Structures are given as structure tokens and as C-alpha cells.
Automatic annotation (TrEMBL):
<dbReference type="GO" id="GO:0002926">
    <property type="term" value="P:tRNA wobble base 5-methoxycarbonylmethyl-2-thiouridinylation"/>
</dbReference>
<keyword id="KW-0949">S-adenosyl-L-methionine</keyword>
<dbReference type="InterPro" id="IPR007197">
    <property type="entry name" value="rSAM"/>
</dbReference>
<dbReference type="GO" id="GO:0005737">
    <property type="term" value="C:cytoplasm"/>
</dbReference>
<dbReference type="Pfam" id="PF04055">
    <property type="entry name" value="Radical_SAM"/>
</dbReference>
<dbReference type="GO" id="GO:0051539">
    <property type="term" value="F:4 iron, 4 sulfur cluster binding"/>
</dbReference>
<protein>
    <submittedName>
        <fullName>Radical SAM protein</fullName>
    </submittedName>
</protein>
<dbReference type="GO" id="GO:0046872">
    <property type="term" value="F:metal ion binding"/>
</dbReference>
<dbReference type="InterPro" id="IPR006638">
    <property type="entry name" value="Elp3/MiaA/NifB-like_rSAM"/>
</dbReference>
<keyword id="KW-0479">Metal-binding</keyword>
<dbReference type="GO" id="GO:0003824">
    <property type="term" value="F:catalytic activity"/>
</dbReference>
<keyword id="KW-0004">4Fe-4S</keyword>
<dbReference type="InterPro" id="IPR023404">
    <property type="entry name" value="rSAM_horseshoe"/>
</dbReference>
<feature type="domain" description="Radical SAM core">
    <location>
        <begin position="1"/>
        <end position="227"/>
    </location>
</feature>
<dbReference type="InterPro" id="IPR058240">
    <property type="entry name" value="rSAM_sf"/>
</dbReference>
<keyword id="KW-0411">Iron-sulfur</keyword>
<dbReference type="Pfam" id="PF16199">
    <property type="entry name" value="Radical_SAM_C"/>
</dbReference>
Length: 341
């Protein structure tokens, strides 16, 4: 049984910052501030609905959990306690800013059964952090991540945003390598969505912020997926949740309701190209039948048959079939130009 979260959205309350990309109310889709009775109601309901409570965390998401007024943070944590333990939920998961992590805060979190802390790193370039008015530095992320790990009782998660103002391919690759060096258990990757009512929105409208090419961001994120897989880092989110609120408020950026599938398809395209490359020049291949594990057929074909079309444009007719087991791509049949097999 996989991991799941019971999400309690804690909106912008108490966050003294105004990051250039943030319109927290738009993202959470709610302005209501949850209190102890809301936490209890949500948890009671979830206890009856969740299949495997032992693999489920109560997740306080949406804002910067450790930056809210202390009394309020303790109220929410306190309300969750009776739902954690044997035959109950596994623990609590929170998201917060790296500059609101200290031993004092971590002691409170540990004593209140917090099991996972996700830090909004967003970028590991100080230029990008500053340009997007994040209010913390790369050093803050590194210090907070190391302090969290030193406790030995928290899973570390890091969140990053791709395509922020003043970012480019180099800053994104730098961000990835610094994130990976901190060995998080999980990462969330959010390609930027430019929302109305944000500073980023103004910069975008004025023409000052020119986002990267959509395809470039897909390529970068596909690379991160591959690297994370190699390092055993779990990419628990890639792309914002498909939501009507976001779709209504969006001015631009890198939103796609199935962004992860786009990236997985892109990775498959690369794998297929590598496999075909073993047979010489791709342009010398007329047609090929490729077999992939059955459950990966749709990724191999790509969104709206993007991979089939891509190779067609290169003059190669590809048919994808499925096989059981094995993670390997196999070439079942290949016809070179001139009829050679
Ligand atoms: S710290 Fe988080 S909640 Fe506060 S403005 Fe920035 S993104 Fe929004």
C-alpha cells in the first residue's frame, strides 16, 4: 500500500513575506483558516475512509507552517495528536520556509510527532531567490536541511520551482545539483505558473519577465526525473495540481494538467532514440517495432502520440507494443531504408 496524505490547508496566515510568485489563496483555493475542530473533523472522517492509516500522514500544507503564530501552530499540532499512533496515522507532514527552522522549532515538531518536513527551497541560486523576493538565501536552505537531518527522526523533503524570474537552464541545473547534494527523501518540482495578483504577474505583463520556452522546461524536468530515479529520490509531485482556480487565475508559465506525463514521455523518447542509435543513423531506419513493459506503453507513445509523431518527422515509422515483466525496451523488428532487416 502506498503512502498517502490527509491534507489540511493552512493558508498564507502569518507569513510575513510576499514572494513574487505567490498568491497563496489562489493555490489553496480557500480563504478559510482551519482550527483545531477542523483538524479533528478532517482526521476523524479520514480514519474511516483511508485504507491503510499506518502509511498515512496528516499534512499541514499551503503556507509556511512554522512561520504562523506559535499558538496557532501548537493548536493545529495538538489537535492532530490523538489521531497518531498504533492503528492510527503514521505522523504529521508539514511544509515551511528554510528560514523558519531552528532547534527550538524542530524540538517542538519532534515532540508533536512530525515525521516529515518539506522545505520550500524554490531555487538554489541566490540571484533567482533575490529576484523573486524570496527573503532567504541558498545558505539558509542548506543550513535548515542539514539541521533537520541531524535530528534523525524527520524525512526531509525539498520543493523547487522551475522557470522563475531570472532563472535559466544553468541556474536550474545548479539548483538540481545542490538539492541532490542535500540527499532529500522526496522532492516536489513545480514549474512556475504565473498568477494574476502577484509581482511575477506584473513583471510578466510589463515584459520584464520573459519565461523560458515551455519545451525547455519539460526537458529540464525530464532530466531531473531521471537523475532523481538514479539517486533514489522520490519525486512526489511534478507540476501543480490541475485546478479550475489556477486555470482561471493563470497569466502564463508552465502549466499543463498532466505535466508529469509530458516529462515521462520525453524521457521515453530519449530512451527510444538511444536504442535506435545502436543500429546506426536514425535517419537510415524506415520502420521499427519496439516493445516496452505493458504498463509503460502510454508513456512510450507520449501525450497525444507525441513520440510517434516525433520519430515520424525524422522519417521513422514506429509501432509500440507491450510485453510482460522486464523494464527494458526491446526492438522486435527493424527495417532499414533499402529493405535491410
Ligand atoms: S513564504 Fe510561502 S506563503 Fe509566504 S509568500 Fe512566500 S510562497 Fe507565499
Amino acid at each position: 500500500m502506498g503512502h498517502s496524505n490527509i491534507s489540511v490547508f493552512v493558508p498564507h496566515i502569518g507569513c510575513p513575506h510576499m514572494c513574487a510568485f505567490c498568491n497563496q489563496r489562489t493555490i489553496t483555493g480557500t480563504e478559510k483558516i482551519p482550527h483545531a475542530d477542523d483538524v479533528k473533523r478532517i482526521c476523524t472522517q479520514a480514519m474511516n475512509e483511508v485504507k491503510d492509516v499506518s502509511q498515512t500522514e496528516i499534512a499541514f500544507f499551503g503556507g509556511s507552517f512554522t512561520a504562523v503564530p506559535r499558538e496557532y501552530m501548537l493548536e493545529l499540532l495538538g489537535a492532530a495528536q490523538e489521531f497518531i499512533g498504533n492503528d492510527k496515522f503514521k505522523g504529521i507532514r508539514i511544509s515551511t520556509r528554510p528560514d523558519y527552522i531552528s532547534t527550538e522549532i524542530l524540538d517542538i515538531l519532534r515532540d508533536n510527532h512530525v515525521t516529515a518536513i518539506e522545505l520550500g527551497a524554490q531555487s538554489m541560486s541566490d540571484v533567482v531567490l533575490k529576484a523573486n523576493e524570496r527573503g532567504h538565501t541558498v545558505q539558509d536552505v542548506e543550513n535548515a536541511a542539514k539541521l533537520i537531518k541531524s535530528y534523525g527522526c524527520f524525512d526531509l523533503g525539498l520543493q523547487m520551482m522551475i522557470g522563475l524570474y531570472k532563472s535559466n537552464r544553468e541556474t536550474e541545473l545548479e539548483t538540481w545539483s545542490k538539492i541532490a547534494a542535500l540527499s532529500p527523501k522526496t522532492v516536489r518540482i513545480y514549474p512556475v505558473v504565473i498568477l494574476n495578483g502577484t509581482r511575477l504577474g506584473e513583471l510578466y505583463k510589463s515584459g520584464e519577465y520573459k519565461p523560458m520556452d515551455f519545451d525547455e522546461v519539460v526537458k529540464i524536468c525530464s532530466y531531473f526525473l531521471t537523475e532523481a530515479d538514479k539517486l533514489g529520490i522520490d519525486v512526489i509531485k511534478l507540476g501543480l495540481h490541475a485546478s479550475e482556480v489556477v486555470e482561471e487565475q493563470m497569466l502564463g508559465g508552465f502549466y499543463h494538467p498532466a505535466f508529469r506525463e509530458l516529462c515521462e514521455g520525453r524521457n521515453y523518447r530519449r530512451l527510444i532514440a538511444e536504442e535506435l542509435g545502436k543500429h546506426g543513423n536514425i535517419s537510415d531506419i524506415a520502420s521499427v517495432v519496439i516493445s516496452v513493459p505493458k504498463r509503460q506503453i502510454s508513456k512510450a507513445i507520449g501525450q497525444k502520440k507525441a513520440n510517434i509523431e516525433y520519430f515520424k518527422d525524422l522519417g521513422v515509422n514506429i509501432k509500440i507494443v507491450g510485453h510482460e515483466g522486464s523494464d527494458k525496451i526491446k526492438i522486435n523488428e527493424i527495417i532499414m531504408r533499402g529493405g535491410e532487416k
